[in-house]
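Example 3.2
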Amino acid sequence: MRAWFDRLANRGVVLFVGAIVLTVVLVTLFNMVISREELERQARNQVETVARMVAYELDRKLIVRFNVLTEAADTMSMDSASFRNFSSLLMERQQPLRHLFRNIFLVDEEGVLLEEYPNMVDLVGMNLSDRAYFRDTVAQLAPQISEPFTSHATGHPSVVMTAPVFDHNRSFVGLFAGFIDLTSSNFLSEVSRTAIGNDGYIIVASRSGLLLAQEDKVKGIQSVSMVNQATMGAMDGFEGVVHTRNRHGKEVMVAVQQLNMAPWFVAVTWPLDDAYAPANRLREALALTAAVAVLILLPLAVWLFRRYLNPLGEVADQIRDRHLGLRDSPVDAGGYREIRDLAEAFNRVFSDRTEVEARLRAERQRAESILGALYEGIIMTDTLGNIRYANPATETFIGTSGRLEGQSLFQLVSFETEQEEWSAAHFLASDEIQGMDGVLRNKQQQAFDVEVTTLHVSRGEPDERLVFVIRDDSERRRQEKQLSWQATHDGLTSLLNRRAFAAELVKWLGQAPSLQTHSVVMMIDLDHFKPVNDQGGHLLGDELLRRLADILRQSVRQSDVVARLGGDEFAILLPACGLDRARALAEQVRRDIEALRLYQDGKSFGVTASIGLTELTAGDNGPKELMARADEGAYAAKAQGRNQVVTVSAPKDD
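Structure, written as tokens:
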């Protein structure tokens, strides 16, 4: 044994293998600890993220419904009598909201149900004044969401959202409400079916202790289990992640997130044995990997030390002499194969220096070929702006062909941004630029919308270089302009859309105090448009809308604003027009619309228009109030038999 250890190679094998074994064991133990901690952190982040995302999504759905109800209620501004008389028309206009609610209904200020859609059970005339959501809405005059309850019709957890309706003097005239089935496909059904890992689950409950959704439980509202301390804490407003035990006694990780829009919370529960299952599998895999590594490295270590721990002095001397030029013949060493391999390798490297240099030149030519095939212009200059290299694509931007090396880049072209023109000094002083938008102009007066990227090579050194990457950006900017147009115009008629029309109203409201002649808003609601779609088809209906848009464009001044607000509803803003002239124009528009006829399969199709007019005054608070007043005129025109023009006076200042 002593003789065996006297050999340096054998001692090296023992030390090397011992170090490998110790390292593998330590790394395995360390990885096991770290992996469990990391897995716990990831699991904690996962349940916390899921809880936050579910709560955010529920808040978003509630906000969307709140906003829809509130905006719809704002458009119903009228006196109490009109609200009752026009309730059927108002409900007809709100039928597109059906996809957000199971039912929608209108209630007057006394609590009497005026309209319901869809009218599954005839409840019109029922008095709802004793309902909590009606009392809360009347008391606070603000949108409300009811306490969850079990619906008699469906047996599912449900809530009612309400929004108050006011007249133009901000007096309460009724409310607009929506009935939500919490287990519907667009609300909580996905939450109740969502699983965390293999055994985790999500619940949604109210802070009053009502269970709204858990693991496909949709039959009515149940009470929250009081066994889980995280759930009990959530009822008191707790948010965060805790370790606790579920009703089966298993250790679980629970993340709680409170909602902002309702007194509800989301609790995500994940059993720890399910969450840490990957760590257990990783421990077994690490142990197997360590054993395999030792079995592979042991013979490898023996081979390495016995092959390479032999005297190499002679080879080292020959290599040194060859390098210094004291030896002309190749290194020639006898003995073991590793020494011969080393000698042959040195001889090959030394003798193939010319071949290596040739390969480097070939690689450079290949790089230049790749740069030459690019569509972007690639230019390298010195710190004075003199071109040192330019690929062929650069000629398109420069506007000239031939050798560009040696010429000044900034005498051939100029770079302009929205703020200033950039010189070589600007680029030299700035940090590396990623995608700067600008305009490149050459001596041929050609202008290109470009995106410029610059890189500094050997910055601060005598051989510092600037690399410019110039990309033609005209197509992207064209697409951005097109998207901007689409965002403000109706795709069918090319008229302004509701958002752009509201922006124009805001602009002219700001100028109202300085105008001697009032501006006028005209709201146009088509009569009998639905039969055109039903009998003639949607293509005929679309053609009718386009022809009507042409009539409106041809009827107004160049300064007037024409918009399609949606469906069969149009609007016109007549700046500094005056009410008398606006009435005459409205009557002409009404007659032109009535005269328009389309023919298909021997049948004649046409519509009439109910038009509401109102003046824009300095006392108007915003576009919603103004449009609601003009819309009230259109409602009145429909109530008086349609195909009429009705003017609604602006409220007088106190």
